[in-house]
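Quick illustration for those who missed Monday's session on complexes.
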Amino acid sequence: MSKRKLSRQQSWRVSKIQQERAERAAKRGAAAEQALSAGELGPEREGLVIAHYGTQVDIESEPGHSMRCHLRANLEPLVTGDQVIWCEGQPTGVVVAQLPRHSELCRPDPYGKLKPVAANIDRIFVVIAALPEPHANLIDRYLIAAEAVSIQAVLVLNKTDLLADNPQLKQKLDQLLAIYPALGYPLLEVSSLSGGLEDLHAALRDRTSVFVGQSGVGKSSLVNKLLPGIDLRVGGLSESSHKGTHTTTTAQLFHLPSGGSLIDSPGIREFGLWHMNRDQVTQGFREFRPHLGHCRFRDCQHQQEPGCAILAAAEEGIISAERLDSYRRIIASLENP
Ligand SMILES: Nc1nc2c(ncn2[C@@H]2O[C@H](COP(=O)(O)OP(=O)(O)OP(=O)(O)O)[C@@H](O)[C@H]2O)c(=O)[nH]1
Ligand SMILES: [Zn+2]
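Prediction with zinc ion bound:
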């Protein structure tokens, strides 16, 4: 009986939440619909979401000129990087349609469902540094996460200035990182302190990118170098207030003076460190894919089963011992594999 009572209570709560959600959506859309029906808006044009403030977005059609916009009531939530159709208005414009996304950077919500946090990203730059010393395991976690959203990852080794008088560390890092370009992940060596960012400039040009990586590897230092004049620590990326509305920006798009765009937010920087399941991890080792499905046992865990195609490939040297070791460690660290 108590079970029935509970479920009735639960369903009442669910419908109440749904009703509140619908009311909020209606309220949000009302301003947009009013402006549309009043015919006070400019012509429809294409634009880009460069910032996102919960119920409103900043849209830009020419770099450097943006306008705060409401969304039409029937629109799916937008994220930074979305291409849209919008109309200028006073004081705010209206987004009338969302154009298809070619990629989505997603993170799981509290229920494990992947939710987009940025759109149309071309490249994920995984920043590592000479110090704190990188580990294969962590690098591979980032790469798996990039594979899960089908976005090309690029490794950026920062703080190479520290290697000049530490040949031992340099040798260790060279050994650790040698495999990645062979797997199709370009490796850029940079120093945000002593310059030498030309390769990075070139890799960012004509694309939309994000920087991800562990704390302390120098992401802010790099971004501050790439975007002179914007101090990320004081730039209010995570929070800014605009005319009385509650405004927490989830992600902001910056145009780089040397070409290309960067989408950045504290949430995006944490990309890759959240939960993944066994399947995502296995698929995320891109050199495993041609061998998957060829093991003797359909539920092979690629640990020590006879007839395992992954182990056979490792023995033949097609899969590196380091990557196999990293795979096992990541699988072992999963809470619910
Ligand atoms: N030697 C050297 N130090 C650097 C370089 N880039 C950054 N640092 C230092 O590394 C430390 C961390 O740099 P941040 O830019 O704050 O690192 P971050 O990745 O943004 O860290 P979080 O904000 O915690 O995510 C700072 O003390 C920087 O001065 C570099 O190229 N060489
Ligand atoms: Zn197997």
